Amino acid sequence: MNFSQFVAILQARWKLSAALLGLVLLATAAFSLLSPKRYTATASVVVDVKPDPITGLVLGPVLNPSIMATQVDIIQSSRVATRVARNLKLNNNPLVREQWQEATGGAGDINDWLARNFLTQLEVRPSRESNVISIGFQAPDPAFAAALANAFVQAYIDTAVELRVDPAKQYSGFFDQRAKDARDALEAASARLSVFQRDNGIVGSDERLDVETARLNDLSSQLVMMQAISSESRSREAQAAAGKGDRLSEAMVNPVVTNLKFELNRAEAQLQELNTRLGDKHPQVEQAKASVAELRSRLNTELQRSTSSVGVTASINASREAQTRSQLEAQRAKVLKLKEQRDAMAVLQRDVENAQRSYDTIVGRLNQTQLESQTQQSNINVLSPATVPLKPSSPKVLLNMALAAFVGTLLAVGLALVRELLDRRVRSTTDLIDTLGVPVLGVVPKPILARGKPSLMAQRVISGRLASPTRSAKA
Hints:
With 475 residues, the chain is mainly alpha-helical.
């Protein structure tokens, strides 16, 4: 079907289409005029994005869409609607109770029944680019619609406060118990530290480890020095034992040994001279030998006397070295013990610090949750309360008539097409070609009689009924 055929069908069936369109418009107008008027009151609230004075949380310059969707779901929840019914105390209204009895037979809670009815008339619209939420309520009475819209706003704010306060109360009880446990743990850790300090004689400003460490360093330095002195003493003692005592400093600085060496050298020189001049057997030579031997004996005796102190000095230095070593080992053991005590005390102090830190954290959270559980403020503020509407929101006559005209036009066109399919007529040469399957050689204009009426053939062509060739020839 092309557009010309479609137009021809509409021209042929225009009366039927017009009748259907008029019927739809008339029914819509009657429905719109006879329907009871309903009024919609709208209130608006804004979700505050300023930092929370208690928690310090900031929602951001633009709320997350999920947060706004959550707020819309809260407003449309049965909890808020039930709170509205309780706040308005409609369950005490005899008329409302009668309606509830007729609708439910007295089954269930009247507040729940009212809440379900309220939600069917509630309309919540969040703004796309702001934090404003519009809450509208529709009712036959404009004052009742405004009262319900404002009641929903107040119930929403109260519910938001409850959703914030109730968890805070639960957390407050939880943190209160945790704070008691943390305080007990802190007291136990402090008691262990005090017992340890008392048992080991440690005070708060104990500096014994530093003093004992300095003493250990001094003893270590003394031991090194004593080891050097003792080594030198042993070397001098060995030198004296090897007969080289005359090379020791004690012998070299001894004036008696020096004089004896001088006299011995002079006596040996005199003995050598006498021996050369008088011979070995001369009495003077013998006397000189005796004098040399006596001097040498006196020298050896004096050397032994002067070097005997070397051994004593070596023994004393060895004893002092051993004593210093013993003191060093004892001091090292003492320092190690003090370090062990300090390490153990550091562990106990860390336990106390950790317990104190945990206690402070829990107490801080406890104070915060207690403040949250006592607050009655919400981040939801009323932007504009609902007022009594002056004009009804429904029925919308113009909108209904426009929709009826559109739908009626579609139905009229559809009815014309269906009627044409049930009773097919020839509307154009295209229909003849499609029906007879022969080409059209020409089109003769329909003749018009003097009175302005077409001839019989023209009437048949105009009527659109397809005639057989025999009937056409008789005609």
